[in-house]
Amino acid sequence: MNLSIRQQKYLKLMNIDIWRNREPRSDEILSGKIDEDQLHSLSNEELDEWDNLKKQVSVCNKCVLHQSRNQTVFGSGSDTADWMLIGEAPGAEEDRTGKPFVGRAGILLTSMLNAIGLEREKVFIANILKCRPPNNRDPAANEVASCGDYLRKQILHIKPKIILAVGRIAAQNLLDTDVPIGKLRGKVYEYGDLGIPLLVTYHPAYLLRSPREKRKSWEDLNAALKLYNKLSQ
């Protein structure tokens, strides 16, 4: 039986052994008896890379934040998502649960996604940092640099069609700028050398403190959705 990468992932998480067929002979591939999709499903290389990345993050000690964290926050959602949302860093609740954007800010973010027809489970949500800075202070430059390779590998694996930078810290670090978030909104950028479209919006924690700005975030989300629909045509 040929299993997709996603099926293999779920079976592995449930500790169910995966019985794999023998490796296909070259004459079977050339004859068309095994198509490209079947051949891809026989390999778990991508799955192993993703799991290995999770393990690397979970034991990371590249910066001082590993000394004060309860656990790392790798990210959550689909690793084949078209949408990737990137925030700043874990807070106290995220540090406790190991999941990004939980608590009141997480509930608001989920509602924002639902409002434009997106399910949280079908996007991927991550942060610039994988560990919580003490007292929720802004990330230090060396901490961002330490986590940078992890985030880039996540993006390379997921290959999202669109990235949404959530909040000032995320936007400025992803775009390598110190321009205020108010001036970064409303434009389409590209992430690094990968050319992935990137848009900017406010962090839901900020929106909880400044509810009048929710209208602007609604505009940002609709702009992102419009761009995504255009890219998907």
Give a brief rundown of this model.
The chain contains 11 helices and 6 strands.
Blueprint (SSEs and pairs):
Elements: H1 5-13, H2 26-31, H3 36-41, H4 45-58, E1 76-77, E2 83-87, H5 92-97, H6 103-115, E3 124-127, H7 141-158, E4 162-166, H8 168-175, H9 181-184, E5 189-191, E6 196-201, H10 204-209, H11 214-231
Parallel strand pairs: 2-3, 2-4, 4-6
Antiparallel strand pairs: 1-3, 5-6
Architecture overview:
With 233 residues, this protein is an alpha/beta fold. It folds into two domains: 5-41, no CATH class; 63-231, Uracil-DNA Glycosylase, subunit E, CATH 3.40.470. It is built from eleven helices and six strands. The chain has helices at 5-13, 26-31, 36-41, 45-58, 92-97, 103-115, 141-158, 168-175, 181-184, 204-209, 214-231; strands at residues 76-77, 83-87, 124-127, 162-166, 189-191, 196-201. The protein has a six-stranded mixed sheet with strand order 1-3-2-4-6-5, with helices on both faces. α4 runs antiparallel to α7 (141-158).
